[in-house]
Request: fold
Amino acid sequence: MNFLFFLIFSFIMGLILGSFFNVLIYRIPRNESIIKPPSHCPFCNNYLKIWENIPLISYIILKGRCSHCKNKISIQYPLVEILTAILCVFLYLFIIIPFLSSKHSIFEITFLILKLTILLITIPVSIIDLFYFIIPDCFTIPFLIIAFLFSFFPGDISPIQSLLGILIGAGILLLAGLIGEYILKKKESMGGGDIKLMAVFGALFGGQISFLTIFLASLIGSVLGLILLLLKKMPNEHKIPFGPFLSLGLWLSVLLYEKLILFYHSFIDFLINL
Reply:
């Protein structure tokens, strides 16, 4: 009974967080306050009533249209809410339940909350990068400082491991960017936002997770890029945002780290025995 309750609770909290993320996605790239004005229609600026601002449910009730001007509401809003809700359920199943199976100090609990926050923040970060090709500093610089400072407290990672994670995460992308710029004749091949984002991941999760994140992001990005080339759907100038791939790589690395490492060793053994 408790399991089902917390499962539903996680999903509902995810819907609420997703609604907030939609505010971040819309307002931060426009340099608008996330507090004022209240939620409103982007077409007619009509302020939303409470019943019009219920995550997912309002979209269904309104049939995807503004109740005032009747313009279509972007499908992005319910999709972000549903995605966030599903990922919150994953966090509960894969991270929170195992964590609660044993006793932990207040520092470890706080560190876990910070990790969950970073994982969830990758949702608006990825969508903003996908739409605008930017990763705003407000998502990276503060969390980089906080993550590194937290490493000085008793927890999962030491300051040396945190620093090593920063050097591995940000360093690999920086090197890749410099090489890419040389090959592409000084055209930017790796954005500064991606490098800062990986610095945050490294500071909080350490070098091993950072390396695996970059590997998975590069692998998934390469496969998608190849598919787009074959389908002749590649964007102009072959420009694809890397932030969403880094975020996906982090989620896979954190949730499936042991399974991925086991698969890697099994694959290597298979190749050796050929």
The chain has nine helices and no strands.
